[in-house]
Design goal:
Number of helices: 11
Number of domains: 3
Radius of gyration: 43 Å
Structural class: alpha+beta
Shape: rod-shaped
Strand content: 15-25%
Distance between the termini: 122 Å
């Protein structure tokens, strides 16, 4: 009952001799989503009625399309399997799902006679063809920069653009929504369906999808392109109510390009430079005080070589600095150690050096006054403070 697969052989007569009517899909462009079938009257149909598909009529379903018969505002029959069928009007439809639309029967029951063609119940039978292949090359893009929170660069502005494809996953829902409000249109394009509000909803939700993806995977904005499957899933979740439930459409692929605005690029370049510098220095240099002291000593050595009083004077200053640095580091290290047992003299407080250790050094220096053999100046250290010569 309902649709019966037609079996014809090469010796069969012309269609008009075999069938009362022959319904075919018109020649359409790839962007056509829904097309009304063309009914040709056969010679065998002597009592054809306008708007009624007679019992015994032949209906052809091309590859890549589903076919739907609507009678008096209700979906009577459906097939997503290509081939030729014989129409036998009955109360129970024989649904051919094509292996894809397993829930189409439930959709048909749910919709009932919703397709009322502008508010008035239809008085005829119509055949519609629905594209079930992916609809490709749908462009989108942000109209202005959008501010997002990046895990590395913090608050930045981005722009985005790309292409997406979608597919009809519930033909009954699509036809009921679109044909019910466009009863006189024989051709419905993809632009007619998604070119307005649905496209705006898609574009406006891309920035939300980008932010969600960055948070879920702890990635920066410039890594989003590598998560195509995740982008598709998030977009379908965001568009479930408007795209899937209302129109029976589902996003299948998204090719996404994300770029920072010119102002944000300057911030990113500056931060990338600092990040690269920190990596070159190494974590020990950036976090460890000893590493920082070593770097400071290196800078002091460079300054000593350029000292206007002579390199020797510069290096003497550097030696004094290094000695003080070593003492300071020793003091810092000693801060965490326990004080020695017994009365060993005054104990240095955190950040201080015990003065008792400095007195003998000072007295010894005053007791041994010497003179430079080169310039005769009084010297108390190992080198002359005037000419830099070594005191022997």
């Amino acid at each position: 009952m309902g649709l019966i697969k037609a079996i014809t052989d090469s010796d069969s007569q012309v269609v008009g001799d075999q069938f009362k009517e022959f319904v075919t899909m018109p020649a359409v462009d790839d962007n056509v989503l829904i097309a009304r079938g063309i009914v040709s009257q056969g010679d065998a149909n002597k009592g054809a009625t306008e708007g009624i598909i007679s019992n015994g009529s032949k209906i052809a379903v091309p590859v890549g399309y589903a076919m739907m018969i609507i009678e008096n505002g209700a979906i009577k029959e459906f097939s997503a399997e290509s081939g030729d069928y014989i129409w036998e009007n009955s109360s129970e439809p024989s649904i051919f799902t094509g292996g894809f639309f397993t829930g189409i029967g439930d959709s048909i029951k749910r919709i009932g006679d919703r397709i009322t063609y502008g508010g008035q119940p239809a008085k005829d039978q119509r055949v519609y063809y629905i594209k079930i292949n992916k609809v490709l090359n749908n462009h989108f893009g942000s109209q202005q920069p959008v501010t997002i929170q990046d895990p590395i660069y913090e608050s930045i502005e981005i722009t985005y653009n790309g292409d997406y494809s979608f597919q009809v996953v519930d033909p009954a829902t699509l036809v009921a929504e679109v044909i019910g409000t466009n009863p006189d249109k024989d051709i419905i394009t993809a632009e007619d369906v998604v070119g307005g509000q649905l496209k705006t909803q898609f574009s406006s939700n891309v920035s939300t999808a980008i932010s969600n993806l960055m948070i879920q995977n702890n990635i920066s904005f410039n890594q989003v392109q590598g998560y195509k499957n995740d982008v598709v899933k998030i977009m379908n979740d965001l568009l479930d109510e408007s795209w899937i439930q209302q129109y029976g459409l589902e996003i299948k692929d998204v090719a996404l390009n994300v770029n920072a605005s010119e102002e944000s690029r300057e911030i990113i370049r500056s931060m990338d430079s600092e990040i690269a510098k920190t990596k070159r220095m190494g974590k020990v240099y950036s976090d460890n005080m000893a590493g920082q002291m070593a770097a400071a000593t290196g800078e002091a050595m460079k300054a000593a070589a350029a000292n206007e009083n002579g390199a020797m004077m510069g290096f003497m200053g550097a030696n004094m600095t290094q000695s003080f640095g070593a003492s300071a580091m020793g003091a810092v290290a000693g801060m965490e150690a326990s004080a020695p047992a017994g009365n060993a003299g005054p104990t240095a407080q955190p950040g201080e050096v015990a003065l008792a250790q400095e007195v003998p050094v000072k007295e010894a220096a005053e007791a041994e006054s010497r003179f430079c053999s080169q310039c005769g100046a009084e010297a108390t250290g190992k080198f002359c403070s005037k000419c830099g010569a070594e005191i022997k």
